[in-house]
């Protein structure tokens, strides 16, 4: 934990980090922390349990990283007594930091409405700057179902020096309610891997692909995509849809019934799980990647599809929306409208050559927009950190 003179240490509070309690989670925040070498980092990785007897605080991430604390904390479902649970987390984190004998220079809460509560308490206690990431999926639920937390959110926003939007689509929602904080906003999308764009191929594709966790097929919009495909087949009768992803037997059975109900046997096929590398390699063979999700924080699969030269069907007002300005790589739809999805499918397939040509010609623009080095440099400048 020793550090060079003049280097700053950032405490990261996050519930989305692989650790000793839960290894299977998104790597987005871990990639961000590990990629930022301009500061030292202490990560407190949080996992909720409704059983207070199962709480723990394990040094390390279970894979040899001493700068992670894996903390299981007590908390009730649906954000019940959220503020109390996060205040207790703050007290426990304070004890960990004092036990380690380290100085914290910044607190970064990786969600405004959960970790932000604990971050606010700690930043006040230690008299250090607080910054918060904004992740729309979770934040929108608190805004909707806990309007009485407005006073607390205002205090967190007041205390925050910067607000980093991982979900650009949530910015107008937050600023409509709290317009005074617009000046604190910066964009901080999840980082895309470096993907080699294949050369443009003028041949027409007839296959569509959607990629999802099958147990969440309603959230991912598959229950609207399938009837939309049935409609689109009237205009483009040669289309097929590969449904990539794994899930439980119940979800697979329900999806199978949806396929049969809409007469899509042989047209929409559950192809199972594919490795990440295999998906990227196969993606250019498709006319479009279609994922009309509901309430999606970001959605890296959209970026990766475009980087392979594959147009996307995405949802307006969620997911990657807000980062698509100047990118002619797909069509945004109202995910509640089957007709809108069907129309977008027909348009994407009919004009796929133009979309694929644009994505091939502007591959570097998309890679740069979601490049980790660029985003980390902007983050460090905003905090006054030196590389």
How are the SSEs placed, and which strands pair?
Elements: E1 9-14, H1 28-35, E2 40-49, E3 56-59, E4 68-74, H2 82-100, E5 106-109, H3 115-126, E6 130-134, H4 136-145, H5 150-159, E7 160-165, H6 171-177, E8 185-187, E9 207-211, H7 222-232, E10 240-244, H8 249-261, E11 268-272, H9 276-282, E12 288-290, H10 300-307, E13 312-315, E14 330-333, H11 338-350, H12 352-361, H13 363-369, H14 372-383
Parallel strand pairs: 1-2, 1-5, 2-4, 5-6, 6-7, 7-8, 9-10, 9-12, 10-11, 12-13, 13-14
Antiparallel strand pairs: 3-4
Which topology of the largest domain does CATH recognise?
Rossmann fold
**Shape verdict:** globular
Given helix and strand content, the structural type is alpha/beta
Fraction of helical residues: 25-40%
Total number of domains:
2
Number of strands: 14
Mean pLDDT score: 94
Main sheet: which strands, in order across?
3-4-2-1-5-6-7-8
CATH architecture grouping of the largest domain: 3-Layer(aba) Sandwich
The CATH class designation of the largest domain is Alpha Beta
Q: Radius of gyration over alpha carbons?
A: 22 Å
- The count of helical stretches stands at 14
Q: N-to-C SSE series? A: EHEEEHEHEHHEHEEHEHEHEHEEHHHH
The named CATH superfamily of the largest domain: Glycogen Phosphorylase B
Strand content: 15-25%
Unreliable parts: none
Span between N and C termini?
19 Å
Largest sheet: 8 strands, mixed
Key features of this structure:
14 helices, six-stranded parallel beta sheet, Rossmann fold, eight-stranded mixed beta sheet, alpha/beta, globular, 2 domains
């Amino acid at each position: 934990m020793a550090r060079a003179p003049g280097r700053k240490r950032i405490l990261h509070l996050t519930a989305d980090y692989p650790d000793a309690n839960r290894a299977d989670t998104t790597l987005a925040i871990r990639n961000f922390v590990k990629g930022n070498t301009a500061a030292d980092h202490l990560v407190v990785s949080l996992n909720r349990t409704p059983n207070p007897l199962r709480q723990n605080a394990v040094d390390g991430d279970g894979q040899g990283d001493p700068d992670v604390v894996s903390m299981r904390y007590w908390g009730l479902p649906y954000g019940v007594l959220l503020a109390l649970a996060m205040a207790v987390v703050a007290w426990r984190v304070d004890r960990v930091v004092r036990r380690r004998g380290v100085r914290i220079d910044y607190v970064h809460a990786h969600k405004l409405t959960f970790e932000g509560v604990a971050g606010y308490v700690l930043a006040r206690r230690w008299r250090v700057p607080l910054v918060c990431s904004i992740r729309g999926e979770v934040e929108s639920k608190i805004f909707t179902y806990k309007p009485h937390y407005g006073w607390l959110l205002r205090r967190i926003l007041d205390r925050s020096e910067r607000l980093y939007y991982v979900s650009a689509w949530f910015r107008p929602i937050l600023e409509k309610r709290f317009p005074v904080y617009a000046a604190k906003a910066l964009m901080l999308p999840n980082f895309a891997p470096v993907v080699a764009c294949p050369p443009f191929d003028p041949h027409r594709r007839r296959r569509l692909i959607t990629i999802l966790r099958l147990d969440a097929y309603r959230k991912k919009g598959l229950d609207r995509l399938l009837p939309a495909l049935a409609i689109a087949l009237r205009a483009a009768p040669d289309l097929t849809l590969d449904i990539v992803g794994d899930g439980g037997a119940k979800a697979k059975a329900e999806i199978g019934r949806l396929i049969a109900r809409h007469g899509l046997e042989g047209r929409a096929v559950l192809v199972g799980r594919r490795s990440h590398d295999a998906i990227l390699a196969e993606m250019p063979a498709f006319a479009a990647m279609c994922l009309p999700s509901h309430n999606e924080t970001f959605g890296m699969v959209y970026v990766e599809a475009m980087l392979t030269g594959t147009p996307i069907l995405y949802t307006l007002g969620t997911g990657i929306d807000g980062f698509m300005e100047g990118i002619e790589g797909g069509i945004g739809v109202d995910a509640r409208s089957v007709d809108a999805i069907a129309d977008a499918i027909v348009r994407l397939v009919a004009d796929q050559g133009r979309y694929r040509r644009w994505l091939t010609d502007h591959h570097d623009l998309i890679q740069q927009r979601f490049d980790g080095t660029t985003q980390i440099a902007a983050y460090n400048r905003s905090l006054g950190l030196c590389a």
